[in-house]
Amino acid sequence: MSHTKKRILVVDDEPMIKNLLYEVLQRNDYEVEIAESGTVALKKFRASEFDLVISDIHIPDVNGMDVLKTIKEINKDVGVILITAFGTIESAVEAMKLGAYDYITKPFSMNALLMLVNKYFDYKKLVDENYYLRNELNKAHSFDNIIGKSDKMLKVFETVDAVADSKATILIQGPSGTGKELVARAIHQMSSRRNTPFIKTNCAALPESLAESELFGHEKGAFTGAIKETKGRFERADGGTILLDEISEMGLALQAKLLRVIQEKEFQKVGSSRNVYVDVRIIATTNRNLLEAVEHGLFREDLYYRLNVVPIILPPLKSRKEDVPLLAEHFILKYANENRKNVKGFDDDVMELFMQYDWPGNVRELENMVERAVVISKEQILTPKHFLFMTNEPGDNDSNVHVVPETEVSLRESEMQLILRVLDECGGNKTHAARKLGISVRTIRNKLKKFALENNGLN
């Protein structure tokens, strides 16, 4: 687990008590800050991150009860322990109703307070673990949800089963829409880390100027707008798994920093010279050929080999069509239940249509098509009329037809026609269009830029 010390804010105006608390907590490996009034306490709390606040109820200007209320408004997950005199136990009980973790009455021994602090952090650890477990279970992503009986998928299942509980870094490769994230979640769920965080990071969606801060965190004042110390995704994933989705889109400078994390298990926050040590299992995904990216100088060769310790290749759906009926039945059951529709299955003509189709959008496209058909259907059995948007027959006015025209145009022109059409349907929103096409926003930008340059060259 992370070696970062837990940070405690002590709020008390009595010199003897605040000094004693500071010394005892520091001696027990906690990082402590002191505030002598409610106003100062709230200012410090807003400016930095704390794991626990210990406050006397009777403090100058803003009392402890109001400090508690404001802290809970700012961050309801931070614990608060109140110190109260014997005669104000009633108000301490009221504070418990407002969200305080516990209270301790004066006079108290330092051992008793220390036990209460340690008890809180044990409790918080349990709560965090239960939260992540519940979160993962709710997503219903497990090994059983990866559907397939083809030889290629059976090979994937064997690999996942063999490496899930190892510490090896994994690179999952395959076209967009093949289920790379699903496999990554299955690996996490089958490992001994299943009750720990699973943090997903889409490398293509990280703003280049903030990417390092997003991954590794930053210190207060590290850059304009950094008003307090912040944990990055690696620190939040400590003890668990981090998924680096679309790793090919990560810039070279950040690749060098990632390489250090893999090799040394440590990093530095932006604006800090202090090393943060983490235990994180790394899974990366890509829909591009990383070796080609290495050859073109777009991806570090040493990082490629560090990531590719265990390669998992997900095949396109067109190369495992024997899995289409299984997947289609899975999705029809899923969306019929979700939408409370009495849809039972497909007629034979639909399955023949499915088996003839090439599925350029892979499993994601099949899922989207089945969901749409289930939603619009008024019958129990789905027929070809529910999938007219898969064809390009005359008279079809469906706005979601994404079939490349059967004319003698170049592959690049066809690709650009498709991108422009989907962008138009999405009102020019590149994020929505990228999601629909199964590619990254950066890929859309690059292709549009290249297309514009080529056109300008022709004029």
Derived structural class: alpha/beta
CATH architecture of the largest domain: 3-Layer(aba) Sandwich
Radius of gyration from CA coordinates: 28 Å
The number of domains: 4
Share of residues in strands: 5-15%
- Report how far the terminal alpha carbons are from each other: 60 Å
Mean pLDDT: 84
Strand order in the largest sheet: 2-1-3-4-5
Based on Cα principal axes, name the global outline. Answer: elongated
Low-confidence stretches: 136-142, 391-410
Provide the helix percentage.
Answer: 40-55%
Task: Name the CATH superfamily classification of the largest domain.
Answer: P-loop containing nucleotide triphosphate hydrolases
- CATH C-level class of the largest domain: Alpha Beta
Instruction: Tell me about the largest β-sheet.
Output: 5 strands, parallel
Q: Got a strand count? A: 14
How many DSSP H or I helices? 18
CATH-defined fold name of the largest domain: Rossmann fold
Architecture blueprint of SSEs:
Layout: E1 7-11, H1 15-27, E2 31-35, H2 38-47, E3 52-56, H3 64-74, E4 79-84, H4 89-97, E5 102-105, H5 110-138, H6 151-163, E6 170-173, H7 180-190, E7 198-202, H8 211-216, H9 233-236, E8 241-245, H10 252-264, E9 266-268, E10 275-277, E11 281-286, H11 290-295, H12 301-307, E12 310-313, H13 324-338, E13 345-346, H14 348-356, H15 362-376, E14 381-382, H16 411-425, H17 430-437, H18 441-458
Parallel strand pairs: 1-2, 1-3, 3-4, 4-5, 6-11, 6-12, 7-8, 8-11, 13-14
Antiparallel strand pairs: 9-10
